[in-house]
Amino acid sequence: MYQTFGDGQGDSDSQGKLSSLKLPILQDKAVLDLGCNEGFFCNVAHEMGASKVVGTDIQAEMVYKAGDRFPDIDFQLQDWKDLADMDGVFDVVLCLSAFHYAKDKEQLLSDIANKLSDDGLFVLEAGIVEGDQEEWVDVERFSDTVQHPTKTALDNLLRKFFSIRCAGPSVNQKGDPVPRFVYHCTKLKPVALIISGKSKDGKTTLAHMIGARTVCWDHIFTKNKLGDTDKIDQITDQLIKDGKADDLVSMVMEEVDQISGLVVLEGYGFGLLPIQKELEDRGFIVWSTIRS
Ligand SMILES: C[S@@+](CC[C@H](N)C(=O)[O-])C[C@H]1O[C@@H](n2cnc3c(N)ncnc32)[C@H](O)[C@@H]1O
Fold first, then answer.
1. What is the per-residue pLDDT across 118-137, written as a single tens digit (0 to 9) for each?
2. Ligand 1: which residues within 6 Å by Cβ?
3. Which atom of ligand 1 is found nearest the CA of 14?
4. From 80, 130, 131, 147, which residue has the greatest number of CB atoms within 10 Å?
5. What is the pTM of this model?
6. CB–CB of 233/241 below 8 Å?
């Protein structure tokens, strides 16, 4: 027996692990537990008033036992490699003491990110070996050999899909010498950096130094034949005074939609147009800077 319930002591300190997870309020949330075992954490979510709880495990015996313990909860016999086929999205996804079993860890994280609601939380509890290098280390345990990452390796992998925060240590696991940690991961959001100011302020140089894909006001101005580029600032002012701001914003967004990740918007027009709201409505985190 792995999990610990009132009727039996398992190998894992389930209550101690629960405290380490620092779970958010789960009331009215949809919760998915990957590698749910006998359903301890699914039951926690159910008792906290989650609106939907699904537990999946690859071992039929565990799914059967979990269903027996908690008949009101939806337990499914499923390999997490089939996660992409599952219907719906979840506000909270748990993967506890199980990530080391994943054969394709990057694919699993990608699938989890796709199953998370936009403001959802992925809670990972996993082993981390000591070391400064980015590496995955074979660790011999009482029953098998698994790979655990260094902190750098885990952070770099998680950061491909999530913004991450280490929420602290978890409980030790009998038979596994590697300390466990809890990560709270939220979906990566696109980021826009607006660099505005007058012509000749050095905006283009700064954007170039940042090295991200850039949406440049001068380029939009020229491409859409808005006027003489020598008078770009005055013409931009006039277009906005003439009530053309919405058209200009559409031109900008056409360019923004071609880029993923970090978008730098550089140019005079971006200080004047209601770009920030438009970007935020599209889920961007917006940063803004002008020369002091
Ligand atoms: C060490 S137990 C952890 C159980 C539970 N998450 C906890 O922390 O108490 C790991 C669980 O992951 C499950 N598991 C391993 N590989 C899996 C896979 N590919 N898909 C779904 N579950 C898997 C195992 O069957 C086992 O129940």
1. 999 999 999 999 998 999 99
2. 2-3, 12, 14, 34-35, 37, 40, 56-59, 62, 79-80, 96-98, 101
3. 9
4. 80
5. 0.83
6. no
